[in-house]
């Protein structure tokens, strides 16, 4: 691998180059990657390493190679924010470590111009026995600041981290959130030309994440180049100017965040369906008016199941009302979410409902109904209640969770018969519409905003 003489670290005390020049989103490339590859030797047994040292590795008998990256090439312009998506093990972290200079590549060329600040592995660049204050000086020195420069910025760094008296305690006593607070505060106050973030912010609390993203937006506006790895599709689409998709170490797609995220989600969900064979796909529903051409939803790893008190929920299914696929949801289409409740005892005042929440746990939208008002009587012991909720998918592209539950009135008041929170993971893709009047949504919900604009007066070119 050949690495440019202009790459990180560009120490300000020893370098007279103008690394911070240029305007936001200029055409000048700050990062150039050509034919990048990384190979790791894999040994079946520990002593094979020794045998390879003694007898050589020409025939490859003692090892096999794992290719973490293969022929990856791309450029990043000054002031651009690049999102990187891909499954676990796709090579995202390996790529970022090579760009930071903490890992050597096996082949290819990398050029990085300017000072790089990175948030990679939790606690990287920190000495666990040093206090937080001492680690600020240590980490800032690694990033190229002198002690005098750190002194001038220390108050701002500590104010942003906001960890109170813990700043003078050994960082081995810190929680993961405190680690991230301090590391991010240092990284942004060294005023980097390139900021690299590898999912580190996911461990911070919600308020701190909002503060971090607000600062990232300000750094974007100031012309900082940002590489951002996240499993949050909504964050990638909102934050990034461009995205790349890494798949098994190869660059699968390079384009707009919406296009890349949509293609990635389709592949992930399609692969999941193939690997699981979808043996439980519903071919003929018992009641076509309730479940039309649906797929049975598998319970998510985030499921929180409440104890049963007189009922059992099962058979959750999701279908597109127009008969299309429901493995992923397309914004703008109508869907039907259904399940059944097996009632174990008489349940006066019974209600059934659904709720959609985001990854952060916020309840975004839902619905419920009273069984007696809809069907003329309350459910009794032995009944099987089949319910369905039709809804328009007006959610912003991203990952969400479906919850469902049923309640009844007992001696102590209303209680759950059974409840499944965050039971089913769903993914929403962008709407495939060519309507130029339809504005791109911002936030969480699509309000179906149509755009109308005109010029009141025509002004020709000035003479």
Can you characterise this structure?
With 463 residues, this protein is an alpha/beta fold. It has a domain of 135 residues: Coagulation Factor XIII, Chain A, domain 1, CATH 2.70.50. The protein has nine helices and 20 strands. The strands form four sheets. A six-stranded mixed β-sheet has the order 6-7-8-4-9-10, sandwiched between helices. Helix 3 packs across helix 5. The longest helix is centred in the middle third of the chain and has 20 residues. The chain is globular and about 75 Å long. The N and C termini lie far apart (55 Å). The N terminus is likely disordered.
Question: Would you tell me the structural class of the helices and strands?
Answer: alpha/beta
Please report the distance between the alpha carbons of the first and last residues.
55 Å
Tell me which CATH architecture of the domain at 295-429 applies here: Distorted Sandwich
Q: Major beta sheet, specifics? A: 6 strands, mixed
Poorly predicted ranges (pLDDT <50, ≥5 residues)?
A: 1-23, 272-293
Shape: globular
* CATH homology-level superfamily of the domain at 295-429: abc- transporter (atp binding component) like domain
Mean pLDDT: 78
Would you list the SSEs in sequence order as H and E?
Answer: EEHEEHEEHHHEHEHEEHEEEEEEEHEEE
Specify the number of helices: 9
Number of strands: 20
The strands making up the biggest β-sheet line up spatially as: 6-7-8-4-9-10
Strand-residue proportion: 25-35%
Would you state the CATH class of the domain at 295-429? Mainly Beta
Rounded to an integer in angstroms, the radius of gyration calculated over CA atoms is: 27 Å
**Percentage of residues assigned to helices:** 10-25%
CATH topology of the domain at 295-429: Coagulation Factor XIII, Chain A, domain 1
């Amino acid at each position: 691998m050949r690495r440019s003489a202009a790459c990180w670290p560009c120490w300000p005390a020893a370098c007279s180059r103008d690394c911070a020049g240029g305007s936001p989103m200029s055409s000048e490339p700050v990062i150039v990657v050509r034919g990048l590859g990384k190979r790791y030797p894999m040994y079946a047994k520990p002593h094979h390493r020794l045998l390879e040292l003694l007898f050589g590795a020409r025939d490859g008998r003692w090892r096999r190679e794992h290719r973490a990256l293969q022929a990856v090439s791309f450029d990043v312009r000054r002031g651009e924010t690049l999102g990187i998506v891909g499954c676990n093990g796709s090579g995202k972290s390996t790529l970022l470590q090579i760009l930071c200079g903490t890992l050597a590549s096996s082949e290819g060329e990398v050029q990085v111009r300017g000072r790089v600040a990175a948030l990679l592995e939790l606690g990287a660049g920190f000495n666990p026995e040093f206090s937080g204050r001492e680690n600020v000086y240590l980490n800032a020195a690694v990033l190229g600041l002198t002690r005098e420069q750190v002194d001038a910025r220390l108050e701002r760094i500590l104010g942003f981290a906001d960890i109170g008296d813990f700043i003078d305690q050994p960082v081995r006593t810190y929680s993961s959130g405190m680690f991230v607070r301090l590391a991010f505060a240092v990284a942004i106050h060294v005023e980097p030309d390139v900021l690299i973030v590898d999912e580190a912010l996911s461990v911070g609390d919600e308020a701190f994440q909002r503060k971090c993203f607000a600062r990232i937006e300000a750094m974007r506006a100031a012309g900082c180049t940002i590489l951002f790895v996240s499993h949050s599709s909504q964050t990638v689409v909102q934050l990034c100017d461009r995205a790349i998709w890494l798949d098994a170490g190869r660059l699968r797609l390079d384009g707009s965040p919406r296009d890349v995220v949509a293609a990635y989600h389709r592949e992930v969900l399609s692969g999941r369906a193939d690997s699981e064979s979808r043996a439980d796909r519903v071919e003929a529903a018992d009641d076509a008016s309730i479940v039309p051409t649906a797929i049975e939803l598998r319970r998510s790893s985030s499921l929180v199941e409440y104890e049963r008190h007189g009922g059992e929920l099962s058979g959750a299914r999701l279908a597109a009302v127009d008969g299309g696929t429901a493995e992923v949801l397309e914004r703008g289409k109508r869907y039907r979410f259904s399940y059944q409740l097996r009632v174990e005892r008489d349940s006066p005042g019974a209600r059934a409902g659904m709720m959609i929440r985001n990854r952060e746990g916020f309840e975004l939208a839902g619905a419920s109904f009273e069984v007696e008002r809809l069907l003329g009587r309350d459910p009794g012991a032995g009944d099987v209640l089949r319910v369905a909720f039709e809804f328009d998918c007006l959610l912003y592209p991203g990952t969400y969770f479906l919850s469902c539950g049923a309640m009844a009135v007992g001696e102590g008041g209303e209680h759950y018969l059974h409840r499944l929170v965050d039971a089913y993971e769903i993914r929403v893709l962008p709407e495939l519409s060519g309507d130029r009047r339809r504005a791109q949504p911002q936030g969480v919900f699509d309000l179906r905003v149509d755009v109308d604009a005109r010029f009141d007066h025509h002004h020709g070119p000035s003479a």
